[in-house]
Specification:
With about 130 residues, the protein is an alpha+beta fold. The chain contains four helices and six strands.
Length: about 130
């Protein structure tokens, strides 16, 4: 008899919250830019070709979701990836977002971005084999 474990409701809620934050292309682009290191809001606005209030709004959502950190230097605010939750994948420029038991990977689909300690799942391509 196979055992099925159900995800704890808090885990599901956390996954949904993170996926909602990451569902916006601008926020994903911001994370991608921050892979290159800390940037101030002005530089991010120039790179994204967006107005400062728009960029600040998206950064605030990323910050409250603990995906990025910020520091103030005079009037400038600098943002960086939060190393506790977001890490860069080696080689392809992808990202891993890990919050508790939730782990999401964003990478170029043409690249292999499996974690090095996990073997890829075997895929059975026999169309006549019944599905369990």
């Amino acid at each position: 008899m196979a055992e099925h474990s159900q995800a704890h409701p808090d885990t599901i809620d956390e996954a949904v919250k993170i996926m909602r934050v990451l569902a916006d292309p601008t926020r994903l682009r911001l994370l991608g830019l921050l892979q290159g290191g800390e940037r101030n809001v002005t530089a991010l606005c120039e790179q994204l070709d967006l107005a400062q209030p728009t960029v600040s709004h998206h950064l605030a959502l990323l910050r409250t979701s603990t995906l990025v950190t910020n520091r103030r230097d005079g009037k400038q605010v600098f943002y960086a990836l939060n190393d506790n939750t977001v890490t860069s994948l080696e080689g392809d420029g992808g990202l891993t977002v890990k919050m508790g038991p939730v782990e999401l990977r964003f990478c170029d689909p043409t690249q292999h971005c499996e974690p090095s300690n996990v073997a890829p799942a075997a895929v059975d391509t026999d169309p006549d084999k019944p599905v369990n």
